[in-house]
Amino acid sequence: MYRNSWIQIDVDALRGNVRKLKALTQKKFIAVIKANGYGNGDVEIAKACLKSGADMLAVSSLDEALSIRHAGIDAELLILGYVDPLHLSLCQKENITVTAVSLRWVQNAVQQECRGLKVHMKVDTGMNRLGFKELDDLKQGLSLLKKRGVNVTGIFTHFVCSDVSDDQMTNCQMQRFESVLDHLDDSFEWIHCCNSDASVHYHETRSNAVRCGIAMFGITSYETDLENVMSLYTKIVHVKKVHAGETIGYGATYTAQKDEIIATVPIGYADGWIRRHQGRKAYVNGQEAEFVGRICMDQAMLRLEKWEEEGTLVELIGEHISLKRAAEELDTIPYEVMTLLSDRLTKVYMKKGSYSDEFTPRFERAEEL
Ligand SMILES: Cc1ncc(COP(=O)(O)O)c(C=O)c1O
After folding, report:
1. Any atom of ligand 1 within 6 Å of the Cβ of 118
2. What are 36-73's pLDDT values in tens digits?
3. Is residue 235 domain-shared with residue 354, that is, in the same domain?
4. Each residue's pLDDT tens digit, 42-52
5. pTM metric for this prediction
6. Is the CB of 158 under 6 A from ligand 1?
């Protein structure tokens, strides 16, 4: 690691969270590791989840699924998003389960060689994104798939409002999902509807699996004993005094009101530390320091209240400035803050309180090509 900015992942906390979620829900556990494991490294997060008892992994696309298979992980693997039916033979070869998203998708799928392919049926109970809306279409789709020897192993839906404690919408979606299950003669190995928030808050008895992503990282909309997993750090690489009236950074958007101490840190919008962080705070050795001036592509400037030496640790997300706080201050959600962090940041995996030898240096990847 040659750049002083990194994502730190507490693998023990992640594994503990998976075990807690499994114990709480008492259902099969589908670890959602899409978007590069929510920005934390898909392969490393997948391995940690599997070691802690995850029964299946879920991703959003065939590319993401292949990244897992190419790393030699042969666990049950479901693609939640759309897969072009032209690629189904590859899915079958790699033992990747795909989602049937509509009758039209099924009609196209059965034109391909798909005997033995594993499929989960997606039921649209209100999200209006992907899935069968009509029971007749679903029945027809199921029958077509079965006739072609496709292995329909699961059925699922996705809740729209699991983050709000008023369950009206979730109840309504659950009723629709149950009604669909009641009208089908089929039995499914995998029945799932709860994401993280629903898994910790909403109680239903018709499913036998949960699909959790963000809760594995300790984030939910409800009180839980899940632990924080992900932190983001950088270090001061330059510090100086500027005089009252001097400006900081591109566009001269900040003017020092008095003589001030300005530190430079090597993280910028190309790392996913977007320009909207201007005006927010970082935690530096007991003080909160404001990002002043525009965030640059690779660097940003902080106004310190007291002098700190070059090399001082700067916490951007962690014990003192939580991911939730960062998201709230940016008027967004923790998912977005996490997944925006780019692959340029090294990821460091902590085990038993110390750095493990697993990390993701970019140059080693390049040499593998
Ligand atoms: C279909 C589906 N299931 C489960 C999840 C996991 O959601 P969460 O991270 O809230 O657990 C997602 C994530 O967006 C999803 O799209």
Report:
1. no
2. 999 999 999 999 999 999 999 999 999 999 999 999 99
3. yes
4. 999 999 999 99
5. 0.94
6. yes
